[in-house]
Amino acid sequence: MTTAQRPERSVPKPQFTDAEAGAQEFPDSGASARRYNYYKPAKRKQTHYEDVTVDVQPDPRHYLAQGWIYGFADGSRGYPLTWTKLKAWGVDKPEPVNGVGTGNNHVVDWPAHGWHEFRDPNEEWEMTFYRYNANVVRQTTQNVENARQAKAFDNWTPNWKTFVERNVGAWMHIEHILGLYVFAAINRSCPTNMHNTAMVVNSMHKIRFAQDLALYNLTLSEEIEGFDGAAHLDAWNNDAEWQGVRKVVEALTAVDNDWGEMAFATNVVFEPLLGELFRSNLVQQSAAGNGDFVTPTVIGAGEYDYSQRDLRWTQACFGPLTQDKEFAAHNKELMQGWLSHWVPMCLEAARAMQPLWSQTDSKPPRFEDSLDRAKSRFAGIVTELGLEPPKELSQ
Amino acid sequence: MAKAHQKIQELSWEPQYHEPYMKYGTDYTFRKAAKKDPLKQVLRSYFPMQEEKDHRVYGASDGAIRGNMFRQVQERWLEWQKLFLSIIPLPEVSAARSMPMLFHVVPNPELHNGQAIQMIDEVRHSTIQQNLKRLYMNNYIDPAGFNNSLRNFHSDYCGTIGRQFAEGFITGDAITAASIYLTIVAETAFTNTLFVAMPAEAAANGDYLLPTVFHSVQSDESRHISNGYATLLMALSDEDNRQLLERDLRYAWWNNHRVVDAAIGTFIEYGTKDRRKDRESYAEMWRRWIYDDYYRSYLVPLEKYGLVIPHDLIEESWKQIWEKGYVHEVAQFFATGWLANYWRIDGMTDTDFEWFEYKYPGWYDKYGAWWENYNRLATPNGHNPIVFEDVDYVYPARCWTCMVPCLVREDMVMADIDGVTRTYCHEVCRWTDVEAFRPTYQGRETPNMGRLVGHREWETLYDGWNWADVVSDMGFVRDDGKTLTAQPHLDLNPKKMWTLDHLRRCPPLGSPNVAINNLDAAGKAAFLADYNKQGPAGRPAPSGA
């Protein structure tokens, strides 16, 4: 028997290049050269989050020598700072005018207390974001599956089933619309990479939560006899209790060309006054008494998204603007105006929801008490931002 | 999963009280379009899947550091990554930002779900790529260029060429930008060379981190391709869109070819040390991934819908790469201008020459002597950088549209716009500026079409400046305050490295565009005639020709 000679395989040959850090000394071989040096960290040390988000998007006010190279038909280009009426330090400074022989012309003392100082306190980037949401998805799925196996839905009181199919079901539409048509939408308009990353994350929290509710609804349709999986559509489209909220949600998507107002009105006004009012002060308070330990775990995941994460970036985004060394008064006046516009709408919508507090067998705290809690929470958020709770709150 | 996806469709929203604010417009119409989402992705499965992909990427990163991959990384390769990884995170995050432009103009709530998932994918890509660069900065021998890449990219003419890729996604007609340019051409065609062909070359150069990261990125692209295809089919339903589709396919194809082939072609052909004869050249990769995979199996079948696809431009792109040496001309130009960059460019050796001649017969006659001169002039020894020396090379004019210089000299054309004479690398780039990006197209009102704006010629900003001041102004100087970040060789011995002092004695930078505009009409005509007669590799026109 002969052994066939195989031809030598053609593969790249590894080579020892000694191209590792520290192998030689030369200008820029020191330890200080091994960090991104084009931005100032918010604190003493650069964070991983800052390293992967700061300055990815250029700005003609900084180093972008040749300016934006594509424009819209109306002449606007890139991320105009006028796409919100809010102002941050340096906004009114003109962009450097480059031309023949001007060189780079970059602005040295930039940014100061301006848009580019915003950092998401949640430090969200790819790795943190996927870990967090994958964990939420796993936990929610496990909770629902556990309840399904334990036949936990059999313990629900009769009217709770109707409440969940109509009203918890209706809430999925709100999260979906806010996710897609508020936060995803303004991710194009906001001025920096750090803003847009925070908004995309906020958007995906909401879309995920909406889908969690939809899939929970699907499970309930399969597990509970007579559970009408389409009732949420009827409630959302027709129930008087939901039309006020729907009007506010749709109005949030229809704000005229101001990403700042959309984010502010949603996370500062709508969420505490209507979101937490329904989620925390009605559903979470009612479920246990009606024999339901599952729905709070699904709702609770969305509630955590807002109260522990989305609200945090919102405060970090808008808070400094009310203390801006140049535009504090302008921003406060503007935000107070937004509060005066959105608070009455939200309160009206909240009052339209009042009948929901009477629909279940085991009653939650009184509507007025729930609303007071929501108002108190809202007033706290507003005060922390350096604003006055609007007089409309006492309506 | 199908049931879950079906359920998600119940979330579709028809406004009752307020219509969303329509910030971004399009000249396309979607009156007759069938509305289907081909993607069927729900986040319950999406997040754990992406997390698992991340685990693999970060596990590989950890392994690369522990195993000290950098002992075997080719510096020639990693230096070019200073440019590539400066540019690419911006197009990624811009793609995230372009998605909501489609929410408003594509009346298909089912599809918005897929576009939102693409949006977060793109944020993922941007930060995972920034993180890869961070890892190189920390572990590769020379961090300079990685550590200030975002400032550098904002100032550098190569970065600006790459920025086309990003700004084309986010500005102008929403469908042109976010659908045709981004998903239908850039992602469906050119990510194959970006994220598949290039990683293969990285691995051959001892870098298995870039393939790990970029294959993880590429595995998201199928979602994005589906978004593009669904939108394309919707657009095809309405006869009025044909004219715009055909315009946009021409623009998007040509601009992607000009920009991506210039960059990725150079990285693959001139950034590699792998000179096995049976490894594919960029031309061969292009033929496989773009011509066969995209053109023949994606674009050509669209003809059955009556769409006129730009056969002529695909053939012309191939001709540019195969016959006119487009990639070789670009690599030579990058190397000519090494001192205006922030990475080190290795010269070509006899082994490289032999490979190029084998893959591209006739290469040596065109480019060999110039690269020999490049090596001769690589370390400072009383002479100036190669751009100032007599090596039979004419510094090229810049293309106003794609911003890559007009390197295939015979193709250069000119036009007078708004009182300024502009140069274009090819007739299609002239057409893009003069005809496509205009408020009317072939007599049709196109009020949403974007504009080409900005200071599109880097050289003009520095016209008349001393080179030491140019490089200082851009910030491409190392921590001793005088050694250049860029070098035309890989020797890190400080005695072999160029400094600002060497540049101080050089002639000032002169903008070809400023010079052209100072000519009278006859002078401009003579300039154009001479330019078109210049030879391959930037050789001057024969005297008396």
General description of the model:
Chain A is built from ten helices and one strand. Chain A is an all-alpha fold and 395 residues long. In chain A, helix 6 (240-253) packs antiparallel against helix 9 and helix 7 (259-287) packs antiparallel against helix 10 (367-384). The radius of gyration of chain A is 26 Å and the shape is globular. The mean pLDDT of chain A is 95. Chain B is mostly helical. In chain B, the strands form two sheets. In chain B, strands 1-2 form a two-stranded antiparallel sheet. In chain B, strands 3-4 form a two-stranded antiparallel ribbon. The longest helix of chain B has 31 residues, at 109-139. Chain B is globular and about 75 Å long. The chains are: A mainly alpha (395), B mainly alpha (545). At the A-B interface, helix 1, strand 1, helix 2, helix 3 and helix 4 of A face helix 1, helix 2, helix 4, helix 5 and helix 6 of B. Strand 1 of chain A pairs antiparallel with strand 5 (451-452) of chain B. Chain B: Keywords: Monooxygenase, Oxidoreductase. Chain B: It comes from Pseudonocardia abyssalis. Chain B: One of its GO terms (molecular function) is monooxygenase activity. Chain B: This is Methane monooxygenase. Chain B: Pfam families: Phenol_Hydrox. Chain A: InterPro entries: MP_mOase_hydro (IPR012078), Phenol_Hydrox (IPR003430).
